[in-house]
Write a structure and sequence with these properties.
By secondary structure, the protein is of the alpha+beta class. The protein is built from 14 helices and 25 strands. The N and C termini lie far apart (about 45 Å). The protein binds glycine.
Length: about 425
């Protein structure tokens, strides 16, 4: 079989690596990929213009691609999956309609309200004056969100009116998020512990993936600016068996049913970002894709075939699919370029000391090959991921791997997994 993975991050390296493990798979193309996917066995990077759907279709036909796995949200929100499916190419990822769950905060909040999915109270505006007026009527802290895709940066927690006014000004007047800020959602702040719930969904059938939790803040103890995620671990004790069931019944099933009623039956990874307080669950957001870095520790634990899982979702035979998981724990620590998530410098040569342990895997993210050298090429550069008999052991092994990766300005948090260990 021949697979095409779309994307260039750590998530896509993990998706490509896992696909390539499958004996049925002869070749995995990754577009555009990174140095990690370049170095992987059976895997080839290919540079396709991801805005040119016709060209991607031609590539799939010419290369006899049996399955396309789309990693990031942008091509999904633009409708790449529908386009490929309508051209009879097996594409694993939601339609443009269903991807609005991530692509528009107003769409998702209106959808939650319509289908009774628990979420914070909100209002949505398309101009500065009305949103500014609204800010004077609400309690603080409060949350201002740019409506569209903003690379994880469009959510601003405001402690007081002044901060909220600045947020609205930066969005509407200074155009901080471009078109993604043509609308805003202003919602109540929700307290609790954040958790991710990620599943494979095909219309009305759901197969939950192993539980996980990521660490979004840049600093130890979960302080400082929000990032795409500085590390993640699996399983996550915060999602107990009971809570798992509640999330499926109160959040996932009504979402899947609602999408069917709206005419957008879901296919793909569906990721709910949740806030948990005792028995209370609130949906903060949905992502129409696998999480990054959650994918890396989750796929390290997956024993079954990712390719079979995706194909059974596409072929609507997910009902009988059971994923086999390694009972070990896993932990992934992101190594970033100093300065991320704000400005940082790329093009630094990476030096990797030798290591040999079947329980560890270095997933690349912002890397590229240049003159046979690995160079940094982004904010999040690697995710050092490891399995252990318990989370503490997985954490120790992941940090041993972090020690072996050197480049100028390498930064990682020193406490990834601490919440699971407490
Ligand atoms: N780790 C958060 C995300 O993938 O959006």
């Amino acid at each position: 079989m021949r697979i095409l993975v779309i994307g260039s991050g750590g998530r896509e390296h993990a998706l490509a690596w896992k696909s390539a493990q499958d004996k049925k798979v002869d070749k995995v193309f990754v577009s555009p990929g990174n140095a990690g996917t370049f170095l992987e066995n059976k895997t080839t990077n290919v540079s396709l213009d991801l805005n040119n759907f016709e060209l991607i279709k031609e590539f799939c036909i010419n290369e006899n691609i049996d399955l396309v796995i789309i990693g990031p949200e942008q091509p999904l929100v633009m409708g790449l999956s529908d386009f490929l499916q309508s051209n009879k190419i097996n594409s694993f990822g939601p339609s443009k309609g269903a991807a609005q769950l991530e692509g528009s905060k107003t769409f998702s909040k209106d959808f939650f309200a319509k289908y009774g999915i628990p979420s914070a109270a909100y209002a949505s505006f398309d101009n500065f004056e009305e949103s500014n007026k609204h800010l004077k009527k609400i309690k603080y802290p409060s949350v201002v969100k740019a409506d569209g895709l903003a690379a994880g940066k469009g959510v601003i927690i405001c402690q007081n009116l002044n901060e909220a006014e600045n947020a609205i000004k930066s969005i509407f007047k200074d155009n901080a998020f471009g078109d993604a800020g043509n609308r805003v959602v202003i919602e109540d702040f929700v307290e609790g512990e954040e958790a991710s719930f990620i599943a494979v969904v095909s219309k009305d059938t759901i197969v939950p993936l192993a539980t996980s939790q990521d660490h979004k803040a840049i600093g130890e103890g979960d302080i400082g600016l929000n990032t795409g995620g500085m590390g993640a671990y699996s399983p996550a004790p915060v999602v107990s068996k009971k809570l798992n069931e509640k999330i499926i019944n109160d959040v996932m099933l009504p979402t899947m049913q609602g999408l069917i009623e709206e005419g957008f039956p879901y296919l793909g990874f569906l990721y709910a970002g949740l806030m948990i307080k005792d028995d209370d669950i609130k949906v903060l957001e949905f992502n129409c894709r696998f999480g990054d870095p959650e994918t890396q520790p989750i796929l390290l634990r997956m024993k079954s075939s990712l390719v079979d899982l995706c194909l059974s979702a596409i072929n609507e035979s997910l009902e009988s699919y059971e994923i086999e998981w390694d009972q070990k724990h896993s932990c992934g620590v992101v190594i970033a370029s100093d300065g991320y998530p704000e400005s940082y410098v790329s093009n630094k040569e990476v030096f990797i000391d030798e290591y040999a342990d079947p329980d560890i895997k270095l997933f690349h993210a912002g890397t590229k090959m240049h003159d046979n050298k690995i160079m940094t090429n982004g904010g999040r550069v690697f995710c050092a991921t490891a399995l252990g008999n318990d989370l503490k052991e997985a954490q120790k092994k992941a940090y041993n791997l972090v020690e072996k990766i050197n480049f100028d300005g390498a930064y990682s948090r020193k406490d990834i997994g601490y919440k699971g260990i407490e």
